[in-house]
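Fold this sequence, please.
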Amino acid sequence: MRIPVPTLLLTIAMSLGLAACANGPNLRDAQRLALYQANAGAPVESFHYFGRINGWTPLGDSALAVWTRPNQGYLLDLLGSCQDLEFARAISVSNQFGRVHARFDSVDVLDRDSFGIPCRIAQIRPIDAAALKQAEREMRESVEMAERAQDAGGGT
């Protein structure tokens, strides 16, 4: 699903607006989460799990992207915050006979310092990987242009 440019620009503007209010690592998480949300489809009940995760990206403490294949990923919204998710070295995802289900399965942080409390999956949304890559590229270019404009304006 391709997001229309005005919607994408609005999402980026909202993310940059959060930049004025936030500080520290949460800013980056909020921007990344907004990008993933803008490039995720409608919620689905489950997805096929191939036995291993190809990659994952924490998006704050209550959402993450899980990639089952290089170009096939899912945005997982969790019920509440998930302890140590942002700092985890590894995670596991429960499944039922090769399918991960919203409201039934969970994400577990695999770290020797965590308590192993499972983080229940509230919602699953498929990610449009091509659109996400394009949106990330556009956001980087937008930030670079803003930095160049700021450098040019500050040097006079």
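The radius of gyration is 17 Å. Residues 1-39+129-145 form one domain.
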